[in-house]
Design brief:
Blueprint lengths: L10 E2 L2 E3 L7 H4 L5 E5 L5 E5 L8 E2 L6 E3 L5 H15 L6 E3 L10 E5 L12 E4 L1 E3 L9 E4 L1 H4 L3 H14 L29 E2 L14 E2 L1 H9 L9 E6 L5 E2 L4 E7 L8 E6 L2 E7 L6 E7 L7 E10 L5 E10 L14 E3 L2 E3 L22 E4 L2 E4 L2 E2 L11 E5 L5 E5 L11 E3 L29
Parallel strand pairs: 1-9, 2-10, 3-7, 3-8, 4-5, 8-11, 15-21
Antiparallel strand pairs: 4-6, 9-11, 12-13, 14-16, 16-19, 17-18, 17-20, 20-21, 22-23, 24-25, 24-29, 26-28, 27-28
């Protein structure tokens, strides 16, 4: 079959609408944390007009429309609901299947019917309003045309997720790992803490500005953090607990992410210090990771911890205790700045908060010490252009690749440089970036401690 003869898979889209009207009651209230998935039992009548989920009015149809009931049965519906709950679990959102009623502002995801029933092109898989200023809109309806899409749970799930998220100010993305994409495949789709290209059939400028979007941080800024997702499972495979080891011994750990939330990392932590980090497996979300004990690691009793973190910085860890050489008796056999207690050499926990001066990453609770001009302070990663990413008094300074770091708002180094840097986990000199004489802060991707 020629490509031109292949059926076109229905695709979700959005309709740009005016920014929220602050005079309307729903936009005077806080953004609702309820998403009602409506299977339209007996059919849903949707009236044209202003967007109001309480009265089933929407800017999408040109005339009164009736969506036929979700036709794929209870099991498929329940599986989709469970999937949507998991996708939204990192955020303070409640997914419900009972209508909250006229007295409660809520978001409604109608999962039923076909696009033709609303006078739309049959190749529209779903549609939702997107505010012209990319603000989150309260109390609106998004549509997933389930009876046209078919009973595929994963496709229905990420279509519901995409359409509902348009109302929260998100554009499409050109990466198959995120539900804001048109690209099929890549397993389960979750809102990723990554700066992805915007676009549908190729990278384009984002509707909300810039070339990239971070869906996770955008939704996080709207709702705040939730309780999910499921944590990775972690195990130390080698050495065995209680073993005696030699210099340069090999360490094997297994980090398995049940949700395959890609772009995570695995850390080697010895006696509380984060020595080495490896990127998570982008193909399966589960893999075995090998580390070699650092050459400078002093003798003594060693707590070997493998920490696995998924792409949303949710972490789990496992620890074994081994002995290399003789347990320390005093700090004389330890590294500079370490103390010796109970036969272990270790650095005391960091105490420096964001914005405090630092010399190396180990000084900072955030594990990230940044340099701008002559100034070195503890910082954290952020995504420029997304609200509430840095504490009050900090600005998110942009860097190449769409990410940045939180820097004191009155900072700026010595004013004479266009370079800055951030230490790697091994405290070695790392990447610097100078662009056109402007101060641009570049941060290697760093991870905070597990919550």
């Amino acid at each position: 079959m020629a490509d031109s003869d292949r059926p076109v898979r229905p695709r979700p889209t959005y309709q740009v609408v005016p920014p929220p009207d602050p005079s309307l009651p729903q936009h005077k209230a806080d953004i609702s944390k309820l998403i009602f998935i409506n299977r339209c039992p007996g059919g849903c009548t949707v009236e044209p007009g202003g967007n109001d989920a309480r009265t089933n009015t929407s800017s999408i149809p040109a005339q009164t429309s009736v969506l036929t009931e979700f036709q794929w049965g209870d099991q498929v519906f329940n599986d989709v609901v469970d999937c949507v709950k998991e996708v939204y679990s990192p955020y303070d959102v409640q997914i419900v299947t009972q209508d909250p009623g006229m007295d409660t502002f809520h978001h409604e995801a109608m999962m039923a019917g076909a696009p033709q029933e609303m006078g739309l092109n049959p190749q529209v898989g779903g549609i939702a309003p997107l505010a012209g200023n990319c603000a989150a809109i309260n109390n609106v309806i998004s549509f997933t045309f389930a009876n046209s899409l078919g009973p595929n749970v994963s496709e229905l799930c990420w279509t519901v997720a995409q359409e509902s998220a348009h109302a929260f100010g998100l554009d499409h993305e050109f990466d198959c790992h995120d539900p804001m994409t048109y690209i099929p495949g890549c397993g389960v789709k979750y809102f990723r803490d990554q700066a992805f290209d915007c676009g549908t059939d190729g990278p384009t400028t984002c509707f909300c500005g810039g070339a990239k979007q971070n869906s996770h941080r955008k939704i996080l800024s709207v709702f705040g953090p939730g309780t999910g997702p499921q944590l990775p499972t972690v195990d130390v495979l080698l050495p065995a607990d209680g073993a005696t080891v030699a210099d340069g011994f090999a360490i094997f750990g297994k980090a398995t992410d049940p949700l395959q939330m890609l772009y995570g990392h695995v850390d080697l932590i010895i006696n509380g210090n984060n020595w080495l980090t490896k990127s998570g497996d982008k193909q399966s979300g589960a893999d075995t990771y090998q580390f070699d004990a650092p050459d400078e690691l002093p003798d003594g009793i060693l707590d070997i911890t493998i920490r696995g973190c998924n792409g949303l910085e949710k972490c789990s860890s496992a620890t074994v205790t081994v002995t290399k050489g003789a347990p320390c008796q005093t700090a004389d056999t330890c590294l500079d700045g370490q103390v010796c207690e109970e036969g272990k050499c270790f650095w005391l926990p960091p105490t420096q908060e964001l914005g405090d001066t630092c010399a190396i990453n180990r000084d900072c609770i955030s594990e990230l010490c940044g340099t701008l001009g002559q100034e070195q302070v503890c910082t954290q990663t952020c995504f420029p252009g997304v609200a509430d990413q840095c504490p009050m008094g900090f600005d998110c300074l942009a860097a190449a690749g769409g990410e940045g770091v939180c820097w004191p708002a009155d900072g700026g180094g010595d004013g004479g440089g266009g370079c800055c840097s951030v230490n790697s986990r091994r405290e070695a000199p790392v990447t610097q970036l100078c662009l056109f004489g402007l101060v641009v802060l570049f941060a290697l991707r760093r991870r905070r401690r597990a919550a």
